[in-house]
Amino acid sequence: MKTELSIQVVIVGGGIAGLWLLNRLSSQGMDVVLLETHGLGNKQTLSSQGIIHGGLKYALNGVLSPASSAIATMPERWRACLNGSGDVDLRGTRVLSEHYYMWSSGSLRSRLKSFLGSKALRGRIDALTPAEYPAFFADAMRSAGTKPAGTVYKLSDFVVDTPSLLQTLARPWHNRILQCEQVHLEQSRHAADAKQASLLIAHGGQQIVVNAGQIILCAGEGNEALLAQWETADAIEKPAMQRRPLHMVSVRVKHATPAYVHCIGDSFGMTPRFTITSHPCHDSRDPEWVWYVGGEIAESGVHRDEQSQQRLAHQALSALFPWVDFSDARWHSFFINRAEPRIADLQRPDNAFMTECGNVVVCWPTKLTLCPNLGDSVSALVSSDTTFHGDDEGSKQLAKLLPQALLADPPWEHIR
Question: Which of 120, 343, 385, 408 is most open to solvent, judged by the fewest CB atoms within 10 Å of its CB?
């Protein structure tokens, strides 16, 4: 026997996008429940590096691209949230680094150097003198007695601790963030409009049908399977998904100061050679960090196996940072897909994506930093919907039937 419930808004997917929308819509007085089949932040969110960036890394070809311009205001919006004056209250979230840096270890071509110092980028990037270097590069000067070659820039970007971010987002609404074994999207049996879907939830031998005013899909790669399950009576144009794979590297190093830096060469390109963030090891008495490494090495690394990828990273990082001792470092790498709306030639999307399919809203934030942008779009759409006139009894009943979802482990926690 199936239990049947009615709920105003149901979000499927407990990553950054789903939790952000839960906060936005709940704070507007809507009755919202979030469903997650694994752990909160599983896959894409906890595999991200936590960089809240303004798109400057997409301008390394010397041009302010649409991707760079679209997210230029995102650091400012996130900082407002972190101090409690933004769309979502993120006070209490741990910030790992108040600034992110960019380093060219060689001499930049004059055109790129002129571009980085242009009026168009004023306030978004500053070239530093050696006296202004962050601690990581100051270590190099103490070790070698001279400053590293090239130029260090300070960006308006910063880095958040993604587990802390997820905890902050989940805390106010923990009783509405629910775990289930399976969730399926199916044609609604009651709606007069054939473009209406319901959710079929399976957990612990129970089957629960949820009729929702709005179903918001924020399940990353899972969106594709959910949409494929939905056999509609009328044809609905469902968005197609693309996967852009990465082969990320993490390395546990005994080094006192963390690194938060894009490492670029002297050539033009849309992707830094290395993008490095550092995450503290909580199981060590000595100062240890896990460096999490993306950038071009992660994009090209999809064609290498784990051993080859780790060996290449070891060689390249040892040459780039001779003042860091990698002799006892422990290396790990893994593959992860970036799930996004399909773009011609598998290009990188410029903005967060949202589209409406009947009562289903399909979302891909495309980048962690664009969550405020996604929140604006979905909030405007859902708040204008007046088709649901129920109360919150359905969500209360569902919370009695399902356990609360828990936070997943970040990938760097598995390096011992």
Answer: 120
